[in-house]
């Protein structure tokens, strides 16, 4: 369960009393979470274009397995009031994804690229949303994907023994049972160069970079480093 989420210009965190605190750009109300209670997971939608950096939305999963949403709703990405029996959530660009207790998946928002075409998914336990594609982790350790596949970010059918998934802007990353990592998709900045990683216990994908945490607490990163987002030599260990 994600207790913390970061959008393009806002940050969301679940407080000890299960309320939600949000700070940052509130242009479209994406930080209007003060009234939320009994929250167990949060997700923050991102933005695709640098020209729309204030356009984002925020999701929250309640203890009763219903979902709340606030913020940018141009494509109906906040229309989640009818959802129930949800066990985990994800927020992408202009869309929201929810996994139900029976392993099926619901989605609302932008339909253009097919990233909401999840109605036939089964046995899903986790989801992740990139800009134009959506990943689903099945209970058997396999991965499914829908949406824009321009850079091969949906070429995941051969993946096996997966324990975690992350969707970047145009790349997909997964953590295997043996602690190795695989990635497909846009590799313009080297964000998919993870084949030498080992002993990984957690992964994260930014728009153009990929981060992993090893069992000893060391952080490794590859990809776009124009803002030093991959400069972790002095970061130390975290576990």
From TrEMBL:
Source domain of life: Bacteria
Alphabetical list of InterPro entries matching this protein: Ran_GTPase-activating, RCC1/BLIP-II, Reg_chr_condens
Pfam family, one: RCC1_2
Name used for this protein in its record: RCC1 domain-containing protein
Transmembrane residue ranges: none
């Amino acid at each position: 369960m994600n207790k913390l989420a970061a959008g393009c210009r806002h940050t969301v965190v679940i407080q000890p009393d299960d309320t939600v605190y949000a700070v940052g750009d509130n242009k479209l109300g994406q930080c209007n979470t003060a009234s939320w209670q009994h929250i167990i997971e949060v997700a923050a939608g991102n933005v695709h274009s640098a020209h729309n950096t204030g356009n984002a939305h925020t999701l929250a999963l309640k203890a009763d397995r219903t979902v709340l949403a606030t913020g940018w709703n141009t494509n109906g990405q906040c229309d989640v009031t009818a959802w129930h029996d949800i066990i985990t959530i994800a927020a992408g660009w202009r869309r929201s994804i929810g996994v139900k207790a029976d392993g099926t998946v619901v989605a609302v928002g932008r339909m253009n690229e097919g990233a909401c075409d999840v109605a036939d998914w089964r046995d899903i336990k986790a989801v992740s949303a990139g800009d134009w594609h959506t990943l689903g982790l099945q209970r058997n350790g396999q991965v499914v994907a829908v949406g824009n596949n321009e850079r091969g970010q949906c070429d995941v059918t051969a993946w096996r023994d997966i324990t975690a998934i992350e969707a970047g802007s145009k790349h997909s990353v997964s953590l295997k049972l043996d602690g190795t990592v695989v990635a497909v998709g846009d590799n313009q900045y080297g964000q998919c160069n993870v084949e030498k990683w080992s002993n990984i216990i957690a992964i994260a994908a930014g728009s153009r970079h990929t981060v992993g945490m090893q069992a000893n607490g060391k952080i490794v990163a590859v990809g776009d480093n124009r803002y030093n987002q991959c400069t972790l030599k002095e970061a130390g260990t975290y576990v």
